[in-house]
Specification:
CATH topology of the largest domain: Double Stranded RNA Binding Domain
CATH superfamily of the largest domain: Sirohaem synthase, central domain
Protein name: Non-ribosomal peptide synthetase module
Strand order of the largest sheet: 2-3-4-5-1-6-7-8-9
Largest sheet: 9 strands, antiparallel
Radius of gyration: 29 Å
CATH architecture of the largest domain: 2-Layer Sandwich
Distance between the termini: 53 Å
Order of helices and strands: EHEEEEHEEEEHH
Shape: elongated
Structural class: alpha+beta
């Protein structure tokens, strides 16, 4: 297995409640990743990690509407710190673009809401998609709803045909007016569904 040289967190975004912030810090403590917590005047916090090769790594969490928001990037060489960061992004439903650098190639991982949605191998200037998440359940639901809409449109077309037949057989102007009103409602609904 290839030796990882460094892990680069690009476009990282974590949004934590106060309780989650405590759990976030605890996750690093449990993974034996020493850190220093700095509480700033406005209630924001900075987490400072020591990385053997890259020195100090600072994650800034801005206090905003009762939540702690961290956006930014960092480069990590320590295997322990990289694994703890991976666990944190996953556990706290973060989003990130993560580049894991190896000798001769890199792997790019895309996280959305804590899950890996795409993995791309970068080698010799070429990109190769290794994994991509497919929301098959969501796609099936969308197709089912589309089928439901098609059935309703078909039903409405049948109603329009029946109302037109009824209108052609009716000689009473008042009854024709009511039928015309019904036709307007049905066709309005049908056009809305077709859009």
């Amino acid at each position: 297995m290839a030796q990882r040289l460094a892990t680069e967190y690009v476009k990282t975004c974590l949004v934590l409640t106060e309780a989650e912030m405590d759990q976030f810090i605890q996750l690093f403590v449990e993974n034996q990743t020493p850190l220093q917590v700095k509480v700033l005047d406005n209630g924001s916090q900075e987490l400072v990690f020591q990385d053997e090769a890259d020195g100090e790594i600072v994650l800034s969490f801005e206090r905003n509407a009762g939540k702690y928001v961290c956006t930014g990037s960092c480069r990590v060489s320590s295997q322990k710190l990289a694994n703890a960061m991976r666990k944190a992004v996953s556990a706290f439903k973060g989003s990130a673009l993560v580049n894991r650098h190896y000798t001769g190639f890199s792997m790019m991982y895309q996280y959305e809401r804590g899950q890996v949605t795409k993995i791309v191998e970068l080698k010799n200037g070429r990109h190769k998609v290794v994994y991509e998440y497919k929301d098959t359940l969501g796609e099936m639901e969308r197709l089912f709803k589309l089928d439901e809409v098609e059935r309703e449109i078909s039903s409405l077309q049948g109603q329009v045909d029946e109302l037109l037949d009824l209108r052609n057989r009716t000689e009473d102007p008042a009854a024709r007016g009511r039928i015309d009103q019904d036709l307007r409602m049905v066709t309005k609904r049908m056009f809305a569904l077709e859009a």
